[in-house]
Automatic annotation (TrEMBL):
PANTHER family: PENTATRICOPEPTIDE REPEAT-CONTAINING PROTEIN (PTHR47926), PENTATRICOPEPTIDE REPEAT-CONTAINING PROTEIN CHLOROPLASTIC (PTHR47926:SF482). It comes from Dioscorea cayennensis subsp. rotundata. It holds the Pfam family DYW_deaminase. Residues 587-679 form the DYW domain. It comes from the Eukaryota. The gene is LOC120268349. This is Pentatricopeptide repeat-containing protein At3g46790, chloroplastic isoform X1.
Length: 679
DNA sequence: ATAGGGTTAG
């Protein structure tokens, strides 16, 4: 029985797969980013200081009018010269509301809590602590410093509480991750009979997402506030409706979010971006691109901005749609959005995940002087997942040399990089330095990296030691890493131990059961294997079907394994049969161990032949131009048999084949893989 | 006067 299917990722109704092109984006494919396009990234020259400041400061030159001082302080604040403005404050007999507003704003912009205290003291002395306008500004300021107690204090002490003041505190609590507190405040607002506005609803909804600790209750609260908004006619306001879409999306209700989005009476660029981001984040990159295309077609007046493009690039990265990504890159350059750091960072990740490390590096190199920690992390992880451990470590050191402080994600990237190339000692040293030199407390994910590094390298005892000495609860990531290592080394007992936790922590994750069954099969423990399979059945779990896809001429073709053949597939099948026949002549033995069904040898070989990755490779051989790299993406880990077949093909068809699996990239060339068969 | 969407790991 041969498993096979052919489908395109484009709408089923069209006879030919349509490309994801937008007339507006129809540009020649651009691969290198000319550095001249990055000139906008250089910092702008500083503005001159206020010229007459020093002369005005001396007491002998007292200004004739009070307004001069107020004006001067405000000017200095505007220029970001907070310190000089503060020095001037004691000389001013009667600062105005505007002056204090400017000072508060400057404290936020300069990120200076110390100056904030000085300003607060001054304005209290002047009696402005009862001014609801100033109080609103103060609450916003304290929110910026995450000083929620101070924010609440200001609120409590102000007797005349306007809706702005209520909203300011509500916002402060919501963005300060105090969802519970924010919702209590919202309840107070309703009970006291405050007339809510759309901002109140937006903030309260944001607070629900901040709850997250208990998603069920978060969902209930969103529904409550949604209902309230509905009864008071606020649900159709574009801000509220957009927030609702975003809330449901963040709580995992993607199709419901879409339904609300479709029902919106008016949408703006933020509404569209929120929905596109929802798809990009929830592993629906194709839907994200489709929606982006729709936005161009249906709403010619809405112009995508940098936030939109970050999500679109994320979707290209998720799909590994290089051709599409290049078009988006060209669009970004045309719209000058490459002056926005987050967009450039998203470009790096897009190229990394599309398998073109060189292009990613070119973008990274073009950023000289304007890289933040995200840019570095993206490039380091890029080297890591492409199997360039040495380069990843080197770049990490360059980053330190540049004075950029590494983050928790830097270490996840660099430890992952070590793991891919079996750099056990380097990984250990880096993990130590993370704690001791950089003061970063390891999270479960870091431990998972270490367990993966040690475990896959065969040091299972050390891996266990790491878990036992952890100061925090080892979550599913840690046990999952251990289980993966057990599969490689056929360690049944440890696998059982890992699974005893995993089946408890994530009972619905079919992957864990499959791995355990795989390990039992490897140890020829058939009875145990069958029991695990039964468990999967009784719990009603669905194995994630293997799926591979390939982009040809900017169209996506995806392959999954099903149990019938049709006319599309015969050509691919025939090609694979021929390849395998040749390989067998050269000593290839199909690795039927990976097939966990009770079938005879021939049937098992047939199933191997139908693995989605082989079909995608065959499709690539037929449809990609000679000399062109065949790029394939797979949703799971590569199986051993596909790995060896692809190695063979790379040599005898003289094709370079790059496969992205769920963990890393494999570059096949001349019969070898960049992973050195360690993955 | 307060407002809604986005960047890196696995």
């Amino acid at each position: 029985m041969l498993f096979y299917a052919f489908k395109t990722l484009s709408p089923a109704s069209s006879p030919k797969p349509s490309s994801l092109l937008f007339s507006d984006l129809m540009l020649p494919v651009l691969s290198p980013m000319p550095s001249s396009h990055l000139h906008l990234l250089s910092p702008s020259s500083p503005k001159p200081l206020f010229r007459s400041f020093s002369s005005l400061r001396t007491p002998s030159q007292t200004p004739t009018s009070v307004n001069n001082y107020n004006h001067l302080i405000q000017m200095l604040c505007k220029r970001g010269n907070l310190k000089q403005a503060l020095d001037l404050l004691p000389h001013e007999p009667s600062p105005t509301q505007r002056t204090y507003e400017a000072l508060i704003l400057a404290c936020v912009q300069r990120n200076s809590p110390g100056s904030a205290a000085v300003v607060h003291r001054h304005l209290s002395d002047d009696g402005f602590d009862q001014d609801p306008f100033i109080s609103t500004k103060l609450v916003g300021m304290y929110s910026h410093f995450n000083a929620l107690d101070d924010a609440r204090n200001v609120f409590d002490k102000t007797s005349q509480k306007t809706i702005f003041l209520w909203n300011a505190l509500l916002r402060a609590l919501a963005v300060g991750d105090e969802g519970e507190e924010a919702l209590l405040l919202f309840r107070d607002m309703v009970l006291v009979g405050i007339e809510l506005d759309s901002c109140s609803y937006s903030f309260a909804l944001k607070a629900c997402v901040a709850l997250r600790s208990c998603e069920v209750s978060a969902f209930e609260r969103v529904r409550e506030i949604h209902g309230h908004a509905l009864r008071h006619g606020f649900n159709s306001r574009v801000h509220v409706a957009t927030t609702l879409v975003d809330c449901y999306a963040k709580l995992g209700c993607v199709s419901y979010a879409r339904r609300l989005f479709d029902r919106m009476l008016a949408r703006n660029v933020v509404s569209w971006s929120a929905m596109i981001a929802c798809y990009a984040k929830s592993n629906n990159p194709f839907d994200a691109l489709k929606l982006f295309e729709e936005m161009m077609v249906l709403e010619p007046d809405i112009v995508p901005n940098s936030v939109t493009m970050v999500s679109v690039l994320q979707a290209c990265a998720g799909l590994a749609a290089l051709g599409q990504g290049k078009i988006v890159h060209a669009y970004v350059l045309r719209r000058r959005l490459d002056s926005i750091l987050s967009v450039v960072n998203a470009l790096i990740t897009m190229y990394v995940k599309c398998g073109t490390l060189v292009s990613a590096r070119r973008v990274f190199d073009g950023m000289n002087g304007r890289r933040d920690v995200v840019s570095w992390n993206s490039m380091i992880s890029g080297y890591g997942i492409h199997g360039f451990g040495t380069e990843a470590i080197q770049l990490y050191q360059e980053m330190l040399h540049d004075g950029i402080a590494p983050s928790t994600l830097t270490f996840l990237s660099i430890l992952g990089a070590c793991s891919h190339v079996k750099f056990v000692q380097q990984g250990k040293t880096l993990f130590e330095s993370m704690i001791k030199e950089h003061g970063i407390t390891p999270r479960a994910e870091h431990y998972a990296c270490m367990v993966d590094l040690l475990g896959r390298a065969g040091q299972l005892d050390e891996a266990i030691k790491i878990i036992e000495e952890m100061r925090i609860e080892p979550g599913p990531t840690v046990w999952g890493s251990l289980l993966g290592a057990c599969r490689i080394h056929g360690h049944v007992e440890l696998a059982e131990r890992a699974c005893s936790h995993l089946f408890e922590l994530e009972p619905m994750n079919a992957g864990n059961y499959v791995l355990l069954a795989d390990i039992y099969a490897g140890a020829k423990m058939w009875e145990e294997m069958i029991n695990v399979k039964k468990l999967v059945e009784t719990r009603g779990l669905q194995k994630v079907p293997g799926c591979s896809w390939i982009e040809v001429n900017r169209k996506m073709y995806s392959f999954v394994s099903v149990d019938f053949m049709d006319t599309h597939t015969e050509e691919l099948h025939a090609l694979l049969v021929q390849i395998v026949r040749e390989m067998k002549g050269k000593g290839y033995i199909p690795n039927t161990d990976v097939v966990l069904y009770d079938l005879d040898q021939d049937e098992k070989e047939q199933i191997l032949l139908g693995h989605s990755e082989k079909l995608a490779v065959a499709f690539g051989l037929i449809n990609c131009r000679r000399g062109e790299v065949i790029r394939i993406t797979k949703n799971l880990r590569l199986c051993e048999d596909c790995h060896s077949v692809t190695k063979f093909i790379s040599k005898f068809a003289r094709r370079e084949i790059i496969v992205r699996d769920v963990n890393r990239f494999h570059h096949f060339r001349d019969g070898f893989c960049s992973c050195s068969d360690y993955w």
